[in-house]
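Morning run. Coffee first, then this:
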Amino acid sequence: MAAAPPLPRPNRFDVSIAVGGLLGGVTMWALGLYTSGSGLLPADWGLVPLVVMAALELLRRSRPSFALVVGTLALTFDMLTPGNAATIIMYTDLAYAAVLYGTPAAARRIPVTTGLATVAITLGFLVWWRDPQALFVGLGAAIVSFGPAATGALVRDHRDAAEAARLRAEQTALLAEMDRSQAVTAERARVARELHDMVANHLSAIAIHSTAALSLDDPATSKDALAVIRENSVAGLAEMRRLIGILRDSGAGTEPAVAPTLDGLTALVEGARANGLDVTLAGLGGGPLPAPVELAAYRIVQESLTNALKHAAPGPVRVSLARRDGALEVAVSSPYGAAGGEHGDGDGGPRAPGSGAGLVGMRERATLLGGTFAAGARGAQWTVHATLPLADTPPE
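And here it is:
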């Protein structure tokens, strides 16, 4: 059989109450100061409930219900002696502590029990004495038992309310920190997508044409390649300056007015043709679209053309946009090679390195708008297909 756990060390304040009550009670006994006890037992017997009550004060926090029950018996014994005020005062503290530190059930039960006991004592003495003076006995019982218990209940309610308010404040602070972390993460992902989509296209063109300029000993070809390199480096620098402006702007959480739209797809396709892609564009027109949808569609086409420039085999690249069932469908197809990064170049490797972040960014853009995204090889073609809902579109 497991041994009972040892009692915790008494609180220093409880020790002070016990010592102070014991010394005060002994002093009253030595001076012959007594309450209106019955006196059925000699005054010296009053030291017994005094010592018991002082010892119970050491248990007022760790064993409050036990201390109150034993204290009630000690108080009853004290009434058979001339009575000691210190014993009564320490009992009132035990009644208070039993409600304040006891279980919730005890905290609800003790005030009711002491209240009923006070009423019963009052009625009993009224019937016995048949004198209104019996009301003072009931008043004394209320002061000794019901009053401390009711006070403990009030203090406990205030303490529980304060603890609940503290917990709510901590939960609110935790939720606010989680919201802040999620907002920071979402903003970092948005900036990462913008940085990748704005710069990758230009850097890929620079990498491809610089390779051509280094590998071909043809002044005309090298000059054309350098012209494309300069054009893309200037455009990339402008995009970088735009991104830095977004980050420095106090309202960086909103998309700036100069964000790309579908009206810029024609220029984007022309730039891809200048970089050597055989691109065709179909499906523009049909009225304005929500700004987040236009931005997402533009970036998906831009990244698809960048991937085609880096990885596609020679052949036509087709870009199409169409409205169907309340959504904008974006489709890009390019010749699929047998090797390479996201899809091969047909010559055993990609013409420019890729990390796969482009596919992740396109999928994120579609998902944020509540749409779908798919990319992969279909026969001899690498296809990218995105569906972007036009209704109830959240801002990116």
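The first helix runs from residue 12 to 31. Good start to the day.
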